[in-house]
Fold:
Amino acid sequence: MENSELRRDPITGRWAIILMDEKIDFDKLLSSKSHRERSNEVKACQFCEGREDQTPSEIFALRHPNTEPNAPGWQVRVIPNKRPVLQIRGDIDNRAVGIYDVLNGIGAHELLIEHPQHFVNIPDFPLEQMKGVLSTMQNRIVELKKDPRFRYIIVHKNYGEASGTTLEHAYSHIIALPVTPGRVKNELMAAKEYYSFKQRCIFCDVVRQELEQKERIVAEDGNFLAFTPFASRRPFEVWMLPEKHETFFEQNSNQGALASMLITVMGKIRQMLKNPDYIITLHSGPNINVSRRRGYWKTLKSDFHWHLEVVPLLRSYTSFELGSGFPINSVPPEIAARVLREETVTQLLRRMKV
Amino acid sequence: MENSELRRDPITGRWAIILMDEKIDFDKLLSSKSHRERSNEVKACQFCEGREDQTPSEIFALRHPNTEPNAPGWQVRVIPNKRPVLQIRGDIDNRAVGIYDVLNGIGAHELLIEHPQHFVNIPDFPLEQMKGVLSTMQNRIVELKKDPRFRYIIVHKNYGEASGTTLEHAYSHIIALPVTPGRVKNELMAAKEYYSFKQRCIFCDVVRQELEQKERIVAEDGNFLAFTPFASRRPFEVWMLPEKHETFFEQNSNQGALASMLITVMGKIRQMLKNPDYIITLHSGPNINVSRRRGYWKTLKSDFHWHLEVVPLLRSYTSFELGSGFPINSVPPEIAARVLREETVTQLLRRMKV
Structure:
């Protein structure tokens, strides 16, 4: 019989079952399909430097002086997705079909190529490379928010086949949408409600408690906090956010500290969890300047706090979890944080005496 | 470039991208991993009749007269799960950890064995068998709702490996929880809000529009409606609900019509979609009698409407969909409904001239 706890995510109100047995089967957890052998054979792909003619024309790039667009010499490069699920041209044409609402599939779908070379991923990035990636994300968000059709900009990175990508080259998606995605909307609404009740940002309250309790901290430097959320949905889920209140990711001016923390934390995940597949999703404020319900977001700047959600994909969601929205997590976040802080799992296991 | 629509689920407000190209690659869709060869070798398992001594003692069974509990002679049988994630004994002990809420992992996890024989599934059930399964679900819900610790009873069926089960024998999970799962809670709250605004049940409004538009009907008999939802998350998602307003599944007295429709619809899914893995989840009203916020549900009997959600697992969710809560569905529900109404895909394709 397993010992478990039901924990409530303070932001969305979503509950999770956390299995509290200290005897975690790390071997089983780390032997999942997401840890397939990663090839070291450098297959030149269309994202590699020197193959710029195989992709659509670049939208943006960080380039060395005296290099031409769509030619070698770049550090970070943004291109349109060849097979977008949303079209960039056209009107949204908001209309009703009886009680249903429907819009044309208008949006932007861009790919951010994070490094000119093939097998280099976040833990290997020099600090300047990671800063370049982050400032490029900011640049694209600012640009896309100028388009009055787009209410929300998603930034999403997937790594490995379990995350749904077959590409090995490091890249992220940047997707501009005329509506706000479900999960982000739940968060925005819950943060707004909490603020109207307490006149405080719920994320700031979470930061305060995590810094005080110290049990779930993965990394902390006075600027940014990386921690395993109290009601984590998945083993080794990590959130990263500025310790001081900030609504929009594109406002952040301390890219050096964030870049450094990302390299450290993603390096720990690679080292301790045997290089798993993962996803990273940015949750930031919507495009309030052009919102059709601008009044709705009047407290947004005080109530919402941007953050990154890192989810290693050590196992698939079960259908029970998908059907009910009720995650079952076999690694308590307090243990996950210890693993990601320690040098090796062996040292941890020795200390835990399991 | 794909032609797409953004559609809003009227109940939860969740949007989905629907790819509207009429040229759907059925071959690719129906060749997914979920269609592995199903064995016909009858491996006797612990759920099979005659092996009752290999399971925990039964909680409930529909039995032939003059048969003993935990012996052959049953039609439907309910047993406790051997490895529950929640414990049946103990107090909930609702407590705060700073701003976080936590409960002990208290709950019930039962398995309903739907047929005495191994390879018989819903489309093969005689009507009386299916009625027995449905009335047993009702019986267990009524019993579990007598326990004041349980706020919500989940009934969930998974079929095939993609649904997370390795068992071949037909069965369902019945899970009693001290909290309401996230997805159901979103629905309950949205239905309540719609009612407070319009004084009508949103599900009744959906039924009315679907019966009028006729585009998304899979089956309809004057008692129950099976249809593909306007903002379907997945290809061939089907919802089934009573046409007349009813809050709780356990109140339904017309099990014959529901059983008959389930056998028909699940048979169509097996036939047209090459026997895919699937999940079925019951969304019904919570245990209002013992809710700690009874006043909160004061309009529940008027605002909520139970329904079954059937989701064939033709492909996995992408990480984009999981991270954002923004599904991308490559089969418009109008086409899915036509496929599930037609005799063969060939006939349909001929008529669609694709």
